[in-house]
Give the backbone structure.
Amino acid sequence: MRRGLALGALLLGAWWGVSALGLVPDFMLPSPAEVALAGWRNSAYLAQNAVVTGSEILLGLLGGTLLGAAAAVVIAASRALQRWLMPLLVVSQAVPVFALAPLMVLWLGFGLASKVALAVLVIFFPVTANFLDGLRRTEPGWLDLAATMGAKPWRVLLRVRLPAALPALASGVRVAAAVAPIGAVLGEWVGASSGLGYVMLNANARIETALMFAALVLLALMSVALYVAVDRGLRAALRWSPGG
Amino acid sequence: MTTPWPPKPDIVGPAPGIAITGATLTYDGAAVFAGVDLTLEAGRLSALLGPSGVGKTSLLRAIAGLETLEAGTVRASDGAPLAGRVAWMAQRDLLLPWADALSNVTLGARLRGEKPDAGRAEGLLARVGLAGKRRALPGTLSGGERQRVALARTLYEDKPVVLMDEPFSALDAITRARLQELAAEMLAGRTVLLITHDPWEACRIGEAVYVLSGRPATLGAPLVLDGAIPRAPDDEAALRAQGRLLARLEVGA
Protein backbone atom coordinates (compact mmCIF):
# COMPACT_ATOMS: atom_id res chain seq x y z
CA MET A 1 0.00 0.00 0.00
CA ARG A 2 2.75 2.44 1.03
CA ARG A 3 4.80 1.40 -1.99
CA GLY A 4 1.74 1.95 -4.20
CA LEU A 5 1.32 5.49 -2.86
CA ALA A 6 5.03 6.21 -3.33
CA LEU A 7 4.87 4.95 -6.91
CA GLY A 8 1.79 7.10 -7.54
CA ALA A 9 3.54 10.18 -6.13
CA LEU A 10 6.57 9.48 -8.30
CA LEU A 11 4.49 9.23 -11.48
CA LEU A 12 2.54 12.37 -10.55
CA GLY A 13 5.84 14.22 -9.97
CA ALA A 14 7.19 13.13 -13.35
CA TRP A 15 3.96 14.21 -15.06
CA TRP A 16 4.11 17.58 -13.30
CA GLY A 17 7.74 18.01 -14.29
CA VAL A 18 7.12 17.28 -17.97
CA SER A 19 4.15 19.68 -18.20
CA ALA A 20 5.87 22.44 -16.14
CA LEU A 21 8.92 22.37 -18.39
CA GLY A 22 6.63 23.04 -21.34
CA LEU A 23 8.04 20.12 -23.31
CA VAL A 24 4.58 19.09 -24.48
CA PRO A 25 1.76 21.49 -25.43
CA ASP A 26 -1.10 21.79 -22.94
CA PHE A 27 -3.72 20.37 -25.26
CA MET A 28 -1.70 17.15 -25.47
CA LEU A 29 -0.66 16.82 -21.85
CA PRO A 30 -2.32 19.17 -19.37
CA SER A 31 -0.67 19.62 -15.97
CA PRO A 32 -1.98 17.67 -12.98
CA ALA A 33 -3.35 20.96 -11.56
CA GLU A 34 -5.40 21.58 -14.70
CA VAL A 35 -6.71 18.03 -14.62
CA ALA A 36 -7.64 18.36 -10.95
CA LEU A 37 -9.39 21.64 -11.67
CA ALA A 38 -11.30 20.15 -14.62
CA GLY A 39 -12.28 17.25 -12.39
CA TRP A 40 -13.49 19.60 -9.65
CA ARG A 41 -15.53 21.76 -12.02
CA ASN A 42 -17.15 18.73 -13.63
CA SER A 43 -17.43 16.65 -10.48
CA ALA A 44 -21.20 16.09 -10.70
CA TYR A 45 -20.98 15.22 -14.41
CA LEU A 46 -18.09 12.83 -13.80
CA ALA A 47 -19.75 11.22 -10.77
CA GLN A 48 -22.96 10.61 -12.69
CA ASN A 49 -21.07 8.91 -15.52
CA ALA A 50 -18.80 7.02 -13.13
CA VAL A 51 -21.91 5.42 -11.61
CA VAL A 52 -22.92 4.22 -15.08
CA THR A 53 -19.49 2.76 -15.88
CA GLY A 54 -19.18 1.34 -12.39
CA SER A 55 -22.51 -0.50 -12.71
CA GLU A 56 -21.47 -1.88 -16.08
CA ILE A 57 -18.18 -3.15 -14.64
CA LEU A 58 -19.77 -4.70 -11.54
CA LEU A 59 -22.61 -6.35 -13.46
CA GLY A 60 -20.12 -7.60 -16.05
CA LEU A 61 -17.86 -8.97 -13.35
CA LEU A 62 -20.74 -10.73 -11.64
CA GLY A 63 -22.18 -12.11 -14.87
CA GLY A 64 -18.80 -13.10 -16.29
CA THR A 65 -17.75 -14.83 -13.08
CA LEU A 66 -21.01 -16.77 -12.78
CA LEU A 67 -20.99 -17.75 -16.45
CA GLY A 68 -17.29 -18.60 -16.44
CA ALA A 69 -17.54 -20.66 -13.26
CA ALA A 70 -20.63 -22.49 -14.51
CA ALA A 71 -18.90 -23.30 -17.81
CA ALA A 72 -15.87 -24.67 -15.95
CA VAL A 73 -18.02 -26.89 -13.71
CA VAL A 74 -20.01 -28.23 -16.68
CA ILE A 75 -16.83 -28.97 -18.62
CA ALA A 76 -15.19 -30.62 -15.60
CA ALA A 77 -18.28 -32.74 -14.92
CA SER A 78 -18.71 -34.18 -18.40
CA ARG A 79 -16.14 -35.29 -20.94
CA ALA A 80 -18.75 -35.25 -23.71
CA LEU A 81 -19.65 -31.61 -23.04
CA GLN A 82 -15.96 -30.79 -22.77
CA ARG A 83 -15.42 -31.94 -26.36
CA TRP A 84 -18.21 -29.63 -27.56
CA LEU A 85 -17.61 -26.62 -25.35
CA MET A 86 -13.83 -26.28 -25.37
CA PRO A 87 -13.54 -25.43 -29.11
CA LEU A 88 -16.39 -22.95 -28.68
CA LEU A 89 -14.58 -21.27 -25.80
CA VAL A 90 -11.32 -21.05 -27.69
CA VAL A 91 -13.04 -19.63 -30.78
CA SER A 92 -14.82 -17.08 -28.61
CA GLN A 93 -11.40 -15.82 -27.55
CA ALA A 94 -9.93 -15.94 -31.05
CA VAL A 95 -12.46 -13.29 -32.19
CA PRO A 96 -11.18 -9.94 -30.89
CA VAL A 97 -13.59 -8.25 -28.50
CA PHE A 98 -12.91 -4.99 -30.35
CA ALA A 99 -14.47 -6.52 -33.43
CA LEU A 100 -17.49 -7.70 -31.47
CA ALA A 101 -18.15 -4.34 -29.81
CA PRO A 102 -20.10 -2.76 -32.70
CA LEU A 103 -22.09 -5.95 -33.07
CA MET A 104 -23.02 -5.98 -29.38
CA VAL A 105 -24.17 -2.36 -29.58
CA LEU A 106 -26.17 -3.18 -32.71
CA TRP A 107 -27.79 -6.19 -31.05
CA LEU A 108 -28.25 -4.93 -27.53
CA GLY A 109 -28.57 -1.20 -28.04
CA PHE A 110 -26.82 1.88 -26.67
CA GLY A 111 -27.73 1.16 -23.06
CA LEU A 112 -26.29 -0.88 -20.23
CA ALA A 113 -26.83 -4.32 -21.77
CA SER A 114 -24.25 -4.07 -24.57
CA LYS A 115 -21.52 -2.88 -22.15
CA VAL A 116 -22.27 -5.58 -19.62
CA ALA A 117 -22.23 -8.15 -22.42
CA LEU A 118 -18.80 -6.94 -23.58
CA ALA A 119 -17.44 -7.02 -20.03
CA VAL A 120 -18.80 -10.56 -19.65
CA LEU A 121 -17.09 -11.56 -22.92
CA VAL A 122 -13.75 -10.21 -21.68
CA ILE A 123 -14.13 -11.77 -18.24
CA PHE A 124 -15.53 -15.24 -18.57
CA PHE A 125 -12.58 -16.84 -20.33
CA PRO A 126 -9.93 -16.16 -17.66
CA VAL A 127 -12.47 -17.29 -15.06
CA THR A 128 -13.30 -20.51 -16.94
CA ALA A 129 -9.67 -21.30 -17.80
CA ASN A 130 -8.39 -20.80 -14.25
CA PHE A 131 -11.27 -22.58 -12.53
CA LEU A 132 -11.13 -25.51 -14.95
CA ASP A 133 -7.41 -25.81 -14.34
CA GLY A 134 -8.12 -25.98 -10.61
CA LEU A 135 -10.91 -28.53 -11.07
CA ARG A 136 -8.59 -30.76 -13.08
CA ARG A 137 -5.76 -30.63 -10.60
CA THR A 138 -7.42 -32.04 -7.53
CA GLU A 139 -4.93 -33.65 -5.16
CA PRO A 140 -5.02 -37.33 -6.30
CA GLY A 141 -4.88 -38.50 -2.69
CA TRP A 142 -8.22 -36.80 -1.95
CA LEU A 143 -9.79 -38.53 -4.94
CA ASP A 144 -8.41 -41.89 -3.78
CA LEU A 145 -9.75 -41.25 -0.31
CA ALA A 146 -13.16 -40.36 -1.72
CA ALA A 147 -13.09 -43.52 -3.85
CA THR A 148 -12.44 -45.76 -0.82
CA MET A 149 -15.30 -43.97 0.96
CA GLY A 150 -17.71 -45.00 -1.77
CA ALA A 151 -18.51 -41.48 -2.97
CA LYS A 152 -20.60 -40.71 -6.06
CA PRO A 153 -18.69 -38.68 -8.69
CA TRP A 154 -20.99 -35.66 -8.42
CA ARG A 155 -20.56 -35.56 -4.64
CA VAL A 156 -16.79 -35.69 -5.08
CA LEU A 157 -17.12 -32.77 -7.48
CA LEU A 158 -19.27 -30.80 -5.05
CA ARG A 159 -17.46 -31.56 -1.80
CA VAL A 160 -13.85 -32.07 -2.87
CA ARG A 161 -12.98 -30.88 -6.37
CA LEU A 162 -15.01 -27.66 -6.27
CA PRO A 163 -13.76 -26.32 -2.94
CA ALA A 164 -10.22 -27.44 -3.82
CA ALA A 165 -10.41 -25.37 -7.02
CA LEU A 166 -11.63 -22.19 -5.31
CA PRO A 167 -8.13 -20.68 -5.06
CA ALA A 168 -7.77 -21.21 -8.82
CA LEU A 169 -11.17 -19.60 -9.36
CA ALA A 170 -9.98 -16.69 -7.22
CA SER A 171 -6.98 -16.21 -9.54
CA GLY A 172 -9.37 -16.06 -12.47
CA VAL A 173 -11.64 -13.55 -10.71
CA ARG A 174 -8.62 -11.35 -9.89
CA VAL A 175 -7.68 -11.25 -13.57
CA ALA A 176 -11.34 -10.63 -14.40
CA ALA A 177 -11.51 -7.69 -11.98
CA ALA A 178 -8.47 -6.19 -13.65
CA VAL A 179 -9.82 -6.51 -17.22
CA ALA A 180 -13.53 -5.89 -16.60
CA PRO A 181 -13.22 -2.09 -17.14
CA ILE A 182 -11.78 -2.75 -20.63
CA GLY A 183 -14.99 -4.40 -21.79
CA ALA A 184 -17.23 -1.71 -20.33
CA VAL A 185 -15.26 1.25 -21.68
CA LEU A 186 -14.87 -0.40 -25.06
CA GLY A 187 -18.64 -0.65 -25.30
CA GLU A 188 -18.98 3.00 -24.38
CA TRP A 189 -16.56 4.04 -27.11
CA VAL A 190 -18.50 2.20 -29.75
CA GLY A 191 -21.86 3.60 -28.85
CA ALA A 192 -23.21 5.13 -25.66
CA SER A 193 -24.88 8.20 -24.26
CA SER A 194 -23.30 8.02 -20.84
CA GLY A 195 -20.35 6.53 -18.93
CA LEU A 196 -16.72 7.55 -18.47
CA GLY A 197 -15.74 6.15 -21.88
CA TYR A 198 -18.40 8.36 -23.45
CA VAL A 199 -17.10 11.36 -21.43
CA MET A 200 -13.56 10.72 -22.68
CA LEU A 201 -14.61 10.38 -26.29
CA ASN A 202 -16.69 13.56 -26.09
CA ALA A 203 -13.97 15.58 -24.34
CA ASN A 204 -11.42 14.35 -26.84
CA ALA A 205 -13.55 15.52 -29.76
CA ARG A 206 -13.83 18.99 -28.17
CA ILE A 207 -10.13 19.04 -27.25
CA GLU A 208 -11.02 19.28 -23.56
CA THR A 209 -7.94 17.24 -22.78
CA ALA A 210 -7.95 18.10 -19.08
CA LEU A 211 -11.48 16.69 -18.67
CA MET A 212 -10.48 13.61 -20.63
CA PHE A 213 -7.58 13.06 -18.28
CA ALA A 214 -9.82 13.61 -15.25
CA ALA A 215 -12.18 10.89 -16.51
CA LEU A 216 -9.20 8.63 -17.21
CA VAL A 217 -7.77 9.14 -13.72
CA LEU A 218 -11.17 8.46 -12.18
CA LEU A 219 -11.53 5.25 -14.22
CA ALA A 220 -8.05 4.13 -13.17
CA LEU A 221 -8.84 4.81 -9.50
CA MET A 222 -12.10 2.87 -9.80
CA SER A 223 -10.31 -0.07 -11.44
CA VAL A 224 -7.61 -0.16 -8.77
CA ALA A 225 -10.21 0.08 -5.99
CA LEU A 226 -12.17 -2.78 -7.56
CA TYR A 227 -9.07 -4.95 -7.84
CA VAL A 228 -8.02 -4.26 -4.25
CA ALA A 229 -11.54 -4.94 -2.93
CA VAL A 230 -11.84 -8.20 -4.89
CA ASP A 231 -8.35 -9.30 -3.85
CA ARG A 232 -8.99 -8.56 -0.16
CA GLY A 233 -12.39 -10.23 -0.24
CA LEU A 234 -11.01 -13.37 -1.87
CA ARG A 235 -8.12 -13.55 0.58
CA ALA A 236 -10.49 -13.27 3.52
CA ALA A 237 -12.83 -15.90 2.06
CA LEU A 238 -10.00 -18.34 1.30
CA ARG A 239 -7.99 -17.99 4.47
CA TRP A 240 -7.40 -21.76 4.52
CA SER A 241 -5.42 -21.59 1.28
CA PRO A 242 -1.74 -20.68 1.72
CA GLY A 243 -1.75 -18.61 -1.48
CA GLY A 244 -5.04 -16.88 -0.57
CA MET B 1 -13.57 -62.05 20.62
CA THR B 2 -12.56 -58.43 21.16
CA THR B 3 -15.14 -55.70 20.87
CA PRO B 4 -14.35 -53.03 18.32
CA TRP B 5 -14.50 -49.50 19.69
CA PRO B 6 -16.73 -47.57 19.54
CA PRO B 7 -19.60 -50.05 19.80
CA LYS B 8 -22.17 -49.39 17.17
CA PRO B 9 -25.36 -51.31 16.42
CA ASP B 10 -25.05 -51.19 12.63
CA ILE B 11 -21.45 -52.40 12.39
CA VAL B 12 -20.68 -53.77 8.95
CA GLY B 13 -20.38 -57.34 10.22
CA PRO B 14 -17.45 -59.27 11.63
CA ALA B 15 -14.05 -58.57 10.12
CA PRO B 16 -13.26 -60.99 7.28
CA GLY B 17 -9.84 -62.36 6.52
CA ILE B 18 -8.28 -61.38 3.20
CA ALA B 19 -6.49 -63.69 0.79
CA ILE B 20 -4.30 -62.29 -1.95
CA THR B 21 -3.19 -64.94 -4.41
CA GLY B 22 -0.80 -64.78 -7.31
CA ALA B 23 -0.45 -60.99 -7.14
CA THR B 24 1.74 -59.70 -9.96
CA LEU B 25 2.91 -56.20 -10.78
CA THR B 26 5.39 -55.04 -13.43
CA TYR B 27 6.96 -51.63 -13.79
CA ASP B 28 8.76 -50.57 -16.98
CA GLY B 29 8.68 -54.15 -18.23
CA ALA B 30 10.40 -55.58 -15.13
CA ALA B 31 8.50 -57.56 -12.53
CA VAL B 32 8.19 -55.71 -9.21
CA PHE B 33 6.62 -58.76 -7.65
CA ALA B 34 5.20 -61.88 -9.23
CA GLY B 35 2.90 -64.51 -7.83
CA VAL B 36 2.80 -63.12 -4.30
CA ASP B 37 0.39 -64.84 -1.90
CA LEU B 38 -0.56 -63.01 1.28
CA THR B 39 -3.20 -63.97 3.81
CA LEU B 40 -4.40 -61.42 6.31
CA GLU B 41 -5.98 -63.12 9.28
CA ALA B 42 -9.42 -61.95 10.30
CA GLY B 43 -9.45 -59.46 13.15
CA ARG B 44 -5.65 -59.27 13.32
CA LEU B 45 -3.18 -56.51 12.70
CA SER B 46 -0.70 -57.61 10.02
CA ALA B 47 2.36 -55.49 9.39
CA LEU B 48 4.17 -55.44 6.05
CA LEU B 49 7.77 -54.31 5.83
CA GLY B 50 10.19 -54.02 2.98
CA PRO B 51 12.53 -51.62 1.18
CA SER B 52 11.04 -48.80 -0.89
CA GLY B 53 10.02 -49.59 -4.45
CA VAL B 54 9.21 -53.17 -3.58
CA GLY B 55 5.51 -52.72 -4.27
CA LYS B 56 4.06 -52.60 -0.74
CA THR B 57 1.90 -49.60 -1.52
CA SER B 58 0.66 -51.13 -4.78
CA LEU B 59 -0.35 -54.27 -2.92
CA LEU B 60 -2.24 -52.23 -0.34
CA ARG B 61 -3.89 -50.07 -3.00
CA ALA B 62 -4.98 -53.22 -4.82
CA ILE B 63 -6.76 -54.41 -1.66
CA ALA B 64 -8.33 -50.95 -1.32
CA GLY B 65 -9.60 -51.20 -4.90
CA LEU B 66 -7.55 -48.17 -5.95
CA GLU B 67 -5.33 -50.16 -8.30
CA THR B 68 -5.82 -53.31 -10.32
CA LEU B 69 -3.15 -55.96 -10.23
CA GLU B 70 -1.87 -57.29 -13.55
CA ALA B 71 -2.59 -60.75 -12.28
CA GLY B 72 -3.87 -62.23 -9.07
CA THR B 73 -6.95 -61.96 -6.93
CA VAL B 74 -7.94 -60.25 -3.71
CA ARG B 75 -10.73 -62.04 -1.86
CA ALA B 76 -12.44 -61.74 1.48
CA SER B 77 -12.68 -64.97 3.49
CA ASP B 78 -16.46 -64.65 3.75
CA GLY B 79 -16.85 -64.56 -0.01
CA ALA B 80 -18.56 -61.14 -0.06
CA PRO B 81 -16.99 -58.33 -2.08
CA LEU B 82 -14.51 -56.09 -0.24
CA ALA B 83 -15.81 -52.86 -1.77
CA GLY B 84 -17.46 -50.70 0.88
CA ARG B 85 -15.84 -52.61 3.75
CA VAL B 86 -12.40 -50.98 3.64
CA ALA B 87 -11.08 -47.81 5.28
CA TRP B 88 -7.80 -46.39 3.98
CA MET B 89 -5.25 -44.22 5.73
CA ALA B 90 -2.27 -42.90 3.80
CA GLN B 91 1.10 -41.57 4.88
CA ARG B 92 -0.11 -38.04 4.21
CA ASP B 93 -3.11 -37.08 6.30
CA LEU B 94 -5.13 -35.97 3.22
CA LEU B 95 -7.23 -33.63 5.34
CA LEU B 96 -9.28 -31.14 3.36
CA PRO B 97 -7.74 -27.77 4.28
CA TRP B 98 -11.02 -25.84 4.05
CA ALA B 99 -12.93 -28.15 6.37
CA ASP B 100 -12.55 -28.15 10.17
CA ALA B 101 -11.45 -31.22 12.10
CA LEU B 102 -15.01 -32.40 12.72
CA SER B 103 -16.01 -32.08 9.05
CA ASN B 104 -12.87 -33.94 8.03
CA VAL B 105 -13.75 -36.79 10.37
CA THR B 106 -17.26 -37.05 8.93
CA LEU B 107 -16.10 -36.65 5.30
CA GLY B 108 -17.09 -40.19 4.34
CA ALA B 109 -20.68 -39.69 5.48
CA ARG B 110 -20.95 -36.40 3.62
CA LEU B 111 -19.51 -37.98 0.47
CA ARG B 112 -22.00 -40.83 0.65
CA GLY B 113 -24.90 -38.44 1.21
CA GLU B 114 -25.51 -39.71 4.74
CA LYS B 115 -26.27 -37.50 7.69
CA PRO B 116 -22.99 -37.01 9.57
CA ASP B 117 -23.06 -38.33 13.14
CA ALA B 118 -21.50 -35.35 14.91
CA GLY B 119 -21.74 -36.99 18.31
CA ARG B 120 -19.76 -40.04 17.27
CA ALA B 121 -17.21 -37.89 15.42
CA GLU B 122 -16.74 -35.73 18.52
CA GLY B 123 -16.30 -38.87 20.60
CA LEU B 124 -13.57 -40.09 18.25
CA LEU B 125 -11.82 -36.72 18.29
CA ALA B 126 -11.90 -36.82 22.08
CA ARG B 127 -10.49 -40.35 21.96
CA VAL B 128 -7.51 -39.21 19.87
CA GLY B 129 -6.99 -36.31 22.29
CA LEU B 130 -8.43 -33.50 20.17
CA ALA B 131 -11.65 -32.74 22.03
CA GLY B 132 -11.02 -28.99 22.01
CA LYS B 133 -9.99 -28.84 18.35
CA ARG B 134 -13.12 -29.85 16.50
CA ARG B 135 -13.52 -26.43 14.89
CA ALA B 136 -9.81 -26.12 14.03
CA LEU B 137 -8.77 -25.96 10.38
CA PRO B 138 -6.01 -28.43 9.42
CA GLY B 139 -3.62 -25.57 8.70
CA THR B 140 -3.66 -24.59 12.37
CA LEU B 141 -2.84 -28.12 13.60
CA SER B 142 0.58 -29.73 14.11
CA GLY B 143 1.65 -32.75 12.04
CA GLY B 144 0.80 -35.10 14.90
CA GLU B 145 -2.60 -33.51 15.45
CA ARG B 146 -3.40 -33.70 11.75
CA GLN B 147 -2.54 -37.39 11.68
CA ARG B 148 -4.78 -37.90 14.72
CA VAL B 149 -7.65 -36.30 12.84
CA ALA B 150 -6.88 -38.64 9.93
CA LEU B 151 -6.96 -41.59 12.35
CA ALA B 152 -10.32 -40.40 13.72
CA ARG B 153 -11.60 -40.08 10.13
CA THR B 154 -10.44 -43.65 9.39
CA LEU B 155 -12.19 -44.91 12.54
CA TYR B 156 -15.35 -42.92 11.82
CA GLU B 157 -15.70 -45.02 8.66
CA ASP B 158 -16.12 -47.96 11.04
CA LYS B 159 -15.08 -50.53 8.45
CA PRO B 160 -14.09 -54.11 9.32
CA VAL B 161 -10.96 -53.84 7.14
CA VAL B 162 -8.46 -51.03 7.68
CA LEU B 163 -5.48 -50.41 5.39
CA MET B 164 -2.74 -48.11 6.63
CA ASP B 165 0.16 -47.02 4.45
CA GLU B 166 3.01 -45.76 6.65
CA PRO B 167 0.57 -43.61 8.58
CA PHE B 168 2.99 -42.50 11.28
CA SER B 169 6.29 -42.34 9.42
CA ALA B 170 6.40 -38.55 9.14
CA LEU B 171 5.98 -38.01 12.88
CA ASP B 172 8.52 -37.55 15.64
CA ALA B 173 9.33 -40.58 17.82
CA ILE B 174 7.17 -39.63 20.82
CA THR B 175 4.09 -38.71 18.77
CA ARG B 176 4.57 -41.82 16.68
CA ALA B 177 4.70 -44.07 19.74
CA ARG B 178 1.51 -42.52 21.15
CA LEU B 179 -0.35 -42.84 17.87
CA GLN B 180 0.78 -46.45 17.46
CA GLU B 181 -0.71 -47.27 20.85
CA LEU B 182 -3.88 -45.39 20.08
CA ALA B 183 -4.29 -47.07 16.70
CA ALA B 184 -3.65 -50.54 18.13
CA GLU B 185 -6.28 -50.03 20.81
CA MET B 186 -8.87 -48.53 18.56
CA LEU B 187 -8.44 -50.98 15.69
CA ALA B 188 -8.79 -54.07 17.85
CA GLY B 189 -11.03 -56.68 16.26
CA ARG B 190 -10.60 -55.36 12.73
CA THR B 191 -8.54 -56.87 9.95
CA VAL B 192 -5.70 -54.41 9.57
CA LEU B 193 -2.83 -54.21 7.11
CA LEU B 194 -0.17 -51.75 8.22
CA ILE B 195 2.67 -50.89 5.88
CA THR B 196 5.67 -49.58 7.75
CA HIS B 197 9.39 -49.15 7.28
CA ASP B 198 9.93 -49.22 11.02
CA PRO B 199 10.65 -52.75 12.39
CA TRP B 200 9.94 -51.54 15.92
CA GLU B 201 6.52 -50.26 14.91
CA ALA B 202 5.79 -53.65 13.35
CA CYS B 203 6.88 -55.46 16.51
CA ARG B 204 4.97 -53.18 18.89
CA ILE B 205 1.60 -53.37 17.21
CA GLY B 206 1.83 -56.16 14.63
CA GLU B 207 0.37 -59.60 15.31
CA ALA B 208 1.82 -61.05 12.11
CA VAL B 209 4.77 -59.36 10.43
CA TYR B 210 5.58 -59.93 6.77
CA VAL B 211 8.66 -58.88 4.84
CA LEU B 212 8.45 -58.19 1.12
CA SER B 213 11.90 -58.01 -0.46
CA GLY B 214 14.05 -58.96 -3.42
CA ARG B 215 13.61 -58.32 -7.12
CA PRO B 216 11.15 -59.48 -8.16
CA ALA B 217 9.96 -59.27 -4.58
CA THR B 218 8.87 -62.30 -2.65
CA LEU B 219 7.12 -62.64 0.65
CA GLY B 220 8.69 -64.67 3.45
CA ALA B 221 6.79 -66.63 6.10
CA PRO B 222 5.23 -64.27 8.64
CA LEU B 223 6.78 -63.62 12.00
CA VAL B 224 3.90 -64.31 14.37
CA LEU B 225 3.92 -62.34 17.62
CA ASP B 226 1.77 -63.39 20.54
CA GLY B 227 0.25 -61.26 23.26
CA ALA B 228 -1.97 -58.24 23.34
CA ILE B 229 -1.12 -55.12 21.37
CA PRO B 230 0.16 -52.46 21.81
CA ARG B 231 3.21 -54.05 23.42
CA ALA B 232 5.11 -52.04 25.99
CA PRO B 233 8.24 -50.22 24.80
CA ASP B 234 10.34 -52.57 26.92
CA ASP B 235 8.45 -55.76 26.04
CA GLU B 236 11.15 -58.41 25.80
CA ALA B 237 9.39 -60.63 23.28
CA ALA B 238 8.85 -57.62 21.03
CA LEU B 239 12.50 -56.59 21.36
CA ARG B 240 13.63 -60.11 20.47
CA ALA B 241 11.24 -60.16 17.53
CA GLN B 242 12.70 -56.88 16.35
CA GLY B 243 16.15 -58.47 16.40
CA ARG B 244 14.95 -61.37 14.27
CA LEU B 245 13.15 -59.01 11.93
CA LEU B 246 16.21 -56.82 11.45
CA ALA B 247 18.22 -59.91 10.57
CA ARG B 248 15.61 -60.86 7.97
CA LEU B 249 15.56 -57.37 6.52
CA GLU B 250 19.34 -57.36 6.19
CA VAL B 251 19.26 -60.68 4.35
CA GLY B 252 16.53 -59.33 2.07
CA ALA B 253 18.30 -56.03 1.35
